[in-house]
Amino acid sequence: MLQINHYTKQYSSDGKKAVDDLSLHILPGEIFGFLGHNGAGKTTTIKACCGILDFTEGEILVNGMSVKKQPLECKKIMAYIPDNPDLYDFMSGIQYLNFIGDVYKVPADLREKKITEYSTDMGITEALADKVGSYSHGMKQKLAIVAALMHDPKLLIMDEPFVGLDPKAAFILKKFMRKFCDQGGAIFFSTHVLEVAEKLCDKIAIIRAGKLLAAGDIETVKGNESLEEVFLELVDDMKVSEEEYTTEEKKAEVKNA
Amino acid sequence: MLKLLLKTRLLAMMDRVGGQKKSRKAATAGKLALMSLGGLVVLILIGGLFCLMVKPLYEGFRDNGLTWLLYAMAGALACFLSFVFTMFYAQGAIFEAKDNELLLSMPIPPSAILGSRMGALYFLNLLFSVTIMGAVGVLRATDGGLQALHVIIFLVCIPLLALIGTTLSCLLGWLVSLITRRMRRKALFSLLLSLGFMGFYFYAMLGLSDHLQSILANSGNIADAFRKVLLPFYAMAMAIAEGDLIQLLIFAACCAVPFALVYFLLSRSFIRIVTAKVGAKRIEYKGGPLKESSVIWSLTKKDMIRFFNSSTYMLNCGMGLVFSLILGVATIASGNALLNFLLKTYTDMEDAGSLAPYLIPVVLGVLAGMAYLCAPSISVEGKNFWILDSLPLKVKDILKSKLLFHLIIAVPFSLVSSLLVVIGTPMDAMQAVIVFLFPLLAHVFCATVSMIAGLYTAKLDFPSEAKAVKSSACSLPPMLATVAVSLAPSILYFFVLKKQGVDLGTILMIAMGVMATLSIAAYAFLLSSAAEKRWHSIKK
Lengths: 257, 540
Known about the structure:
The structure holds two protein chains of two kinds. By secondary structure, chain A is of the alpha/beta class. Chain A has two domains: 2-77 and 155-256, P-loop containing nucleotide triphosphate hydrolases (Rossmann fold, 3-Layer(aba) Sandwich), CATH 3.40.50.300; 86-152, no CATH class. Chain A has ten helices and ten strands. Helices cover 80% and strands 0% of the residues of chain B. In chain B, helix 6 runs antiparallel to helix 12 and helix 17 (336-346) packs across helix 18 (352-368). Chain B starts with a helix and ends with a helix. Chain B contains 25 helices and no strands. Chain B has two domains: 54-275, no CATH class; 295-537, no CATH class. By secondary structure, chain B is mainly alpha-helical.
């Protein structure tokens, strides 16, 4: 469903790479967790997969279509939920969802059904008439999730989707993610919460300073240890301290975020 | 602490005026000096203009032995202008500042936070006092009417006067904040309030000579009113005019006591005021049928909702529409009077009567240049840009929708204004066609140029929507281009073509052809791959 082949992103001309030669393959039915510290290159990779950030080398394919060459076709079958959902504050929740429905050409009766179903699950139905600007961070996140699901995407790309969600919404989202993938969809998401990744993901990839450290089935990657232990070991093995991240890389991540 | 907070506020204000600086050090050196110099020049120009305006009044008062009345009126005017212009600033910077909660979480006394914000507000009010009172002082000084003691009292009165404006701004800003917190249509309320003040300002300025005559004729009654009702200004005026120290003390008390009282009251309740979560009444969503729209129409509606939810956007980019409507209404109301005014102002010819119906569409065309609605429409996407970017949208559809948003709002205003002009002005059918078509094409031209300017000057990192909307980089090109295209035919006619016997109507028809051609060319460019490439480079 999502193929990342030798993806490289270089922000500055001095040769420093935010992401270097990353290759991942996410199959239909898989929940793929993307782990890494702050500034590792997770958001940069995710944005490139969504076609909203150009990249230097490599290729990203969504359902066999190139994100670079056929961005619109790719975007039609995927949905993106950013880590900080800056939605249209001036619209009401329902106006925003209707707008998304129009863009994806979701028939009116179907969008009504989906809005009712997903917004009820997320517990935001009653607030849909209010302006998005009056929503809390968590409610915006929930609205972004409902909007992302409106057109039945085949691929969901999410950047830290659990940030800001209350326990109930997080639980519902996790259940939904499993159901979505069981029905043939694929999910590629980044997270800092290793417990979530350990329980939820079929496969994971760990990235550090733009380079892939490990990837594969979660059981293979972690072996007999906990994911937390493996993650910390891998990071420690690299002997890369926080100070080693250059200002340029940090700037690139900040700009990207 | 207060000093540090005050410095932060003043630097934030300078950022608003001069744009954000990459380096604070650079901002505080040469650029700061340049900005101060620029500000000083503007103040001197405004003060000079005011000086010229009130000179007849001063001479009249002086001859009637009421010189003090000019000081009193200038003081009242300075206070009025300062509180009108800083009221919204007070609302935003004191009561609804985004960093209030952050500062309150730090070990900073609320009185210091409030003090710093009121200090910045006082600085703004001081600029008004200096400009208005300075102008009056210069007028009196050039007439040899100010002696050393009077000058000292005068200089003491100016900073005291700014306290009155600050007090009023704080109170009204608080009131506006209390009202708008409970409102769902805050933008409309702010727009109407701003238009109300603006209307009053234009009414006062347009009839200035009549008002001055009326003031002179009733100077005795006005002087009485100041003595009985507007005591602080009377005390200030007497202190300056007569060198009366007792009156100075009364004036100082009138300024300082209310200011201190407001500061005391607000600082005691500051936490409660700024952390009150009143909010607008929530509406419960009860479902209902949803309407499908095409992609372009849906994008257009999105931009329209944004526009009508922002009083700053409406006031900055839509004033030309309001003015064109006012022109239409004025034409209906005044009939030939407006035409005669235009003739007197712009022409000095025997055949001027036949040219008059052509001048109004030209003015409407110029006003179209003041309605550059879609120019900031890309920059205002700001943090929301990712939405358009991540959705399966064609760039040309996004640009088309923004153009449509501009025209859907501008065209009805243009048609109604033209209709009012046609009804209110005697003209033949061909002239009526020009009255309708010329402004309409000017709007189309302005829309396409605005879109190109918006595309090429787009910045997604403006700190606020207001800053994006007020950016001159996107607004100046369409404004100047539309004004130039609208005015050029008339200028050409009066200075060149008239001598060759060419009819102004014909020239305007040619100009319309030029506007249409340029608009089509600009539209074609917006649909080109170059525009698409530029769109994709915005986020880089």
